[in-house]
């Protein structure tokens, strides 16, 4: 069971791809989703245990700084179930 989410927002698709590659290779995390939020901004959402998510985000930010720019980064430990449904709309339909 995944207990934490990590979000990192970067500018540019190449930066996002490099960031995702580094994160999934560095720690036991899974890519949950990637959303284009407009104006070249891409939000990457990963999930995993808290320590792995923190480690992956640190390395992802480091990689993103080399290739482009990090706009924001956030770890959400033990998210409220309502927030989980917002981040995972496909799962919402299965639970209802």
Report on this structure.
Helix 1 (13-26) packs antiparallel against helix 2 and helix 3 (81-87) crosses helix 4 (89-95). The two termini are 19 Å apart. This protein has a single domain (4-79), classed as 2-Layer Sandwich (Alpha-Beta Plaits). The chain has helices at residues 13-26, 50-67, 81-87, 89-95, and strands spanning 4-11, 29-38, 41-48, 69-77. The protein contains 4 helices and 4 strands. It is globular and about 35 Å long. By secondary structure, it is α+β, with helices and mostly antiparallel strands. It has a 4-stranded antiparallel sheet with strand order 2-3-1-4, covered by helices on one side. 48% of the residues lie in helices and 36% in strands. Strand 2 and strand 3 form a beta hairpin.
State the distance separating the first and last CA atoms.
Answer: 19 Å
**CATH topology (level 3) name:** Alpha-Beta Plaits
Q: What form results from the Cα inertia axes?
A: globular
Give the total of beta strands.
4
Q: Class in CATH?
A: Alpha Beta
Rounded Rg:
13 Å
* Helical proportion, percent range: 40-55%
User: What is the string of SSEs from the N terminus onward?
Assistant: EHEEHEHH
Sheet having the most strands: 4 strands, antiparallel
Structural class: alpha+beta
Q: Which percent range describes the beta-strand content?
A: 35-45%
Q: For the record, what is the CATH homologous superfamily label? A: BMC (bacterial microcompartment) domain
Whole-number tally of structural domains: 1
Number of helical segments? 4
The unreliable regions are 92-96
Summarize model confidence as the mean pLDDT. 89
Major sheet: order of its strands? 2-3-1-4
CATH architecture: 2-Layer Sandwich
């Amino acid at each position: 069971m995944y207990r934490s989410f990590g979000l990192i927002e970067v500018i540019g698709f190449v930066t996002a791809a490099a960031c995702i590659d580094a994160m999934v290779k560095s720690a036991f995390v899974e890519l949950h989703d990637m959303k284009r939020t407009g104006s070249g901004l891409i939000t990457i959402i990963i999930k995993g245990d808290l320590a792995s998510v923190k480690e992956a985000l640190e390395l992802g930010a480091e990689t993103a700084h080399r290739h482009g720019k990090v706009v924001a980064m956030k770890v959400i430990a033990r998210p409220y179930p309502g927030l989980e449904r917002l981040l995972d709309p496909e799962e919402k339909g299965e639970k209802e």
